[in-house]
Amino acid sequence: MAKLKKAARSKTASRKPAAKSAEAASHNLISTAQQIWAAGVGALARAQGEGTDMFDALVKKGMSLEAQTRKLANGKVDVVRATVEDRVENVREKATDTWDRMEKVFEDRVQRALTRLGVPTREDLAGLNKRVETLTAELRKQNGKAPVAKKAAVPVKKAAKKPVKKAGKSVLPKAPTPRAPKA
Hints:
By secondary structure, the protein is mostly helical. It is built from two helices and two strands, in the order ααββ. The chain has a two-stranded antiparallel ribbon with strand order 1-2. The longest helix has 116 residues. It is rod-shaped, with a radius of gyration of 61 Å. The chain starts with a helix and ends in a 12-residue tail after the last strand.
């Protein structure tokens, strides 16, 4: 029994330093947990105090960045707009040139067709008109009469009548009878 008591005493003696060590570790752990808790509460208080200021600073930075982006975008839009307007003007000029060429080709073809058909041109009619006026003026001078007002339109010659056949005979139209000039 003595041995047992002695062994029990040695075990309790060895337990005391381990208990002190466990108690110190436990005290240390509690102290660290309290410090962590206090740091968290301090961070929350600081975030609440500085949060509004930080939010305002972020808003200002965002507004500044947006203004820069808009300025850059507007500059690019102006460049693109100018380029598009230049291209549109070039296309407009080319279309006008093409239209003018097509119009000229059309006029030339119509003129050739009218010439082939024997339709007189404006210049031909103007020349004939002058010639008729000159001849009329000469006739009036020869007859001694005062000139009469010009006619607006030039009379068109009537086509000669075709001979009419009667019972196998061909009848020619009568020739106009010449008139003597009045003196």
